[in-house]
Amino acid sequence: MGAKVTARSERVRNPPPPVPSWDFRAYAVSAHDDVFPRPASRRRTWMDATSHGFARRCLPLVVANHAGWVVRAPFGLRATWSGSDGPGGIDVRVLGDGHPASALVSDHFGYGILTFNIPFVFRTPAGVGLSVRGAPNFWIEGAHPLEGLVETDWATVTFTMNWKLLRPGRPVEFRQDDPICFLQPIDLGLIEAARPEVVDIESDAGVAAGYHAWARSRSAFLADGERRPGDWQRDYFIGGRLAGPDAPVHRTTVAVRPFDGAPAALVHIVDGQFTTADAVNGPALVKREPTSVTERGAEFVLTDADGAQHRLNATALFVLEACTGENSYEDIVEMVRVAFSLDDPPGAAVGGCLADLLRAGLVDRPG
Length: 367
Hints:
This protein is of the alpha+beta class.
């Protein structure tokens, strides 16, 4: 498997052409250390829980997950709508101890709309607005995020993130660190300049050849009686085309920078600064299934069968999921390089991460 990935991915390693940097400012109106916007996570708990992690193989989902910034709930809360159309119809209960940012939550719009006040004035370049919506591929049971486009190239006001509670009398719970607001800059002029057109696919020989080759390959893959549950087609993931050259540039991740001046997020990183011989030599490691995986901010909390908790960042969790007993150390190094668009194989970091997972009892040798 590793050789196949290497052969296909070496031809699409060139990153997209650089874009001139631009200033994206968040002027803080009130100071709350845990209400700052931060880079969004590429992982989702429900995606990790799918069989063989198949949802994580859908690169469009993964890229959408983290192509922006999120504001996370600084505390847990439970909201229940009475069904009234007027303001004050939502009973909001902060879970746990009181929090100084609790005043950011209100229901002054009525109609079962729960409002989070985002305490920043944002500024983007001329023509660039800000899409304000719920985090991609994330939901809250019983509530739907409302979306807005804000002209942040001139406005000097704050805005709100709103969630519509769907059923009167049904409590809706937001957990601490749940993403309540997703921020993504949008070039509105680029949208307006588009010239939409519907054409027959056969009018473009290259597009038609690529599609038909993919369709045949997909049909054969699905009809293969010897296909194993963990098998998957990687062509899109690695930027490969079955007809014609591979993609000249290809993204498997989006490098979203944190806001300068924001407090550092608490992230426990497995950094690989130790001996790796026990992990990288011998049979491939096998993941021990945790009893639960919970996303908490930029980290993931795994609870093992003994009740112990382990905190991993997204890269360490990716390495853990790759420990299937079939992937060698070299395979996993290549998977991480491709998934995170690295120029050089991250051998030392992956080896160290595997050793740390081995010590923690999250992976083991076969048998």
